[in-house]
Amino acid sequence: MTPGAATPMDPVAALAAVDQAETALAEAAGADQRAAHLAVLAEDARVYVARRPPAAGKAEAAAALSAWPKTFLFAPRTGGGASDAGDLVWTYGEAAWEADAALHQGWFVRVWRRDEGEVWKLVFVQLVPGVAPPPLRVTTQPPPAS
């Protein structure tokens, strides 16, 4: 992956900017995920679609994205972070889609890079199907007295 070619940016501002890009991607993916992803993919992006070899570059990604369902529902990111230079941001969160007459859930993982012209582009995309988070082990009860 080539490094970002943009000027340095505060990491908090970078994450906020990507949140806007993620919102736009989520809205577009609700109608046509392939077109939505291709609109924001960098030329050197990597796309991972389960049971297919990794797609390297936008041309291969176009074919790989055709193997995913036509639409996705992406929740707002659950987590993520930004590089100190504010040129890379990674995000992850919940996704849902319909396939084989059933609703499926999983997680999306993305890495965004800010390139020339200060434009955020996706350089890594993966959907991890059917993986549920571990149950929370939080309790409101105080620990037992020893």
UniProtKB/TrEMBL annotation:
* Taxonomy, superkingdom: Bacteria
**Signal peptide, first to last residue:** none
Q: Which part of the chain is the DUF4440 domain?
A: 19-122
> What is the protein's given name?
DUF4440 domain-containing protein
Which Pfam families does the record associate with it?
Answer: DUF4440
The source organism is Brevundimonas goettingensis
